[in-house]
């Protein structure tokens, strides 16, 4: 590691006290520990996801301001299994696989809506840029090659 004046150690082209990026964290300069083309691709993909979830405009507003939409999830016909079990006179209620699939779908949609509402409420955004770091890329390639060999 090269030694600079006054005994400071250099980290690549920066000293350890000299890294002060004050902007959008996804728009920071590409570092030497990242794959450049993958950074560009993942930042575009993150922008698309944030636009679809309406998280992009939350950066400009206060992070404590609640979002305007009240629902967050799409309207769907919901089957309530608890009410069905209470109202049934038979001891064993026959539920079809279609009813079970509808119940699981309703549960997953309500979880997705709650997650999106929480992201909007706290002003958070999706950032996939961490996947472009070289150690992560190597790990993904090793796992992928291991899975290909298994099949």
Any chance you could write out the topology, listing elements then pairs?
Blueprint: E1 10-11, E2 14-15, H1 36-52, H2 81-87, H3 97-122, H4 134-150
Antiparallel strand pairs: 1-2
Keywords: Membrane, Transmembrane, Transmembrane helix
Pfam family, one: mit_SMPDase
Transmembrane segments: 130-148
Structural class by sheet pairing and helices: mainly alpha
Q: Total strand count, please? A: 2
- Compute the average pLDDT: 76
Report Rg: 24 Å
Q: Biggest sheet, in brief?
A: 2 strands, antiparallel
Helix run count: 4
Order of helices and strands: EEHHHH
Instruction: Quote the distance from N terminus to C terminus.
Output: 44 Å
What best-fitting shape do the alpha-carbon axes yield?
elongated
Strand order within the widest sheet? 1-2
> How much of the polypeptide forms β-strand, as a percent range?
under 5%
What portion of residues is helical? 40-55%
Which stretches are poorly predicted, pLDDT < 50 over at least 5 residues?
58-76
GO molecular function: sphingomyelin phosphodiesterase D activity
Transmembrane segments: 130-148
InterPro entries: Sphingomy_SMPD4
Keywords: Membrane, Transmembrane, Transmembrane helix
Quick overview:
The chain is an all-alpha fold and 151 residues long. 44% of the residues lie in helices and 3% in strands. The chain has a domain at 66-125.
Mind explaining what this structure looks like?
- The structure is a single chain.
- By secondary structure, this protein is mainly alpha-helical.
- It has a domain at 66-125.
- The chain is 44% helix and 3% strand.
- The chain is built from four helices and two strands, in the order E-E-H-H-H-H.
- It has a two-stranded antiparallel sheet.
- Strand 1 and strand 2 (14-15) form a beta hairpin.
- Mean pLDDT is 76; it is low at 58-76.
- InterPro entries: Sphingomy_SMPD4.
- Keywords: Membrane, Transmembrane, Transmembrane helix.
- The chain crosses the membrane at residues 130-148.
- GO terms for molecular function: sphingomyelin phosphodiesterase D activity.
């Amino acid at each position: 590691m090269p030694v600079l004046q006054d005994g400071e150690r250099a980290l690549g082209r920066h000293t350890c006290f000299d890294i002060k990026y004050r902007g959008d964290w996804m728009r920071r300069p590409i570092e030497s520990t990242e794959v450049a083309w993958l950074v560009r691709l993942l930042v575009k993909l993150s922008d698309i996801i944030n636009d679809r979830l309406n998280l992009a405009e939350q950066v400009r507003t206060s992070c404590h301001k609640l979002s305007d939409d009240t629902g967050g999830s799409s309207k769907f016909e919901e089957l309530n299994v608890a009410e069905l079990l209470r109202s049934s006179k038979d001891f064993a209620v026959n539920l079809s696989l279609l009813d079970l699939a509808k119940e699981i779908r309703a549960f997953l949609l309500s979880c997705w809506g709650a997650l999106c509402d929480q992201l909007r409420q706290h002003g958070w955004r999706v950032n996939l840029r961490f996947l472009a770091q070289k150690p992560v890329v190597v790990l993904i390639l090793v796992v992928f090659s291991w899975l290909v060999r298994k099949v």
